[in-house]
């Protein structure tokens, strides 16, 4: 198994693959950034639940995927915006609107990881991590 250079891409890929395969949950090694991203996805209604399972290493992050009444995944798409090879930063006045406001942009700001709506409210910019719809 190769070393994972981009843990956020790995998180998004595992969620995307889990949804396509119809899985109930996906798990991965935890980190602070992954935990805060998963908590935001839960708060925004994209994940059913998020739990942290301690182990001897860094712990496991277990995410319960969410489906609608027809069994279709709630998450239609995930996109990594800022990559290690090409970072994307946005100011508070140029925060993105994902799918005309129907989706959610997630940013890493000086005040922590937050959605585009929170960043607009607090008038902060930061690194544009990913968008989800």
Features:
133 residues; alpha+beta; Ribosomal Protein S8, Chain: A, domain 1; Dna Ligase, domain 1; 5-stranded antiparallel sheet; 3-stranded antiparallel sheet; 3 helices; 30% strand; globular
Structure summary:
The protein has 133 residues and is α+β, with helices and mostly antiparallel strands. It is 26% helix and 30% strand.
Structure overview:
The protein has 133 residues and is an alpha+beta fold. It has two domains: 7-65, Ribosomal Protein S8, Chain: A, domain 1, CATH 3.30.1370.30; 78-132, Dna Ligase, domain 1. Helix content is 26%, strand content 30%. The chain is built from three helices and eight strands. It has helices spanning 7-21, 32-43, 116-122; strands spanning 25-29, 47-53, 60-65, 78-80, 89-90, 104-109, 112-115, 126-132. The strands form two sheets. Strands 4, 5, 6, 7 and 8 form a five-stranded antiparallel beta sheet that branches. It is globular, with a radius of gyration of 15 Å. The N and C termini lie far apart (30 Å). The mean pLDDT is 93.
């Amino acid at each position: 198994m190769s070393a994972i250079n981009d843990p956020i891409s790995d998180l998004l890929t595992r969620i995307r693959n889990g949804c396509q395969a119809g899985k109930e949950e996906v798990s991965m090694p935890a980190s602070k950034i992954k935990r805060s991203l998963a908590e935001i996805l839960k708060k925004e209604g994209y994940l059913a639940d998020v739990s942290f399972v301690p182990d001897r290493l860094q712990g496991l992050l277990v995410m319960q995927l969410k489906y609608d009444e027809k069994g279709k995944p709630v998450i239609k798409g995930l996109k990594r915006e800022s990559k290690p090879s090409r970072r994307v930063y946005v100011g508070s006045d140029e925060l993105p609107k994902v799918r005309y406001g129907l989706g959610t942009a997630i940013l890493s700001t000086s005040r922590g990881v937050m959605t585009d709506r929170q960043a607009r409210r607090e008038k902060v910019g930061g690194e544009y991590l990913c968008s989800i719809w």
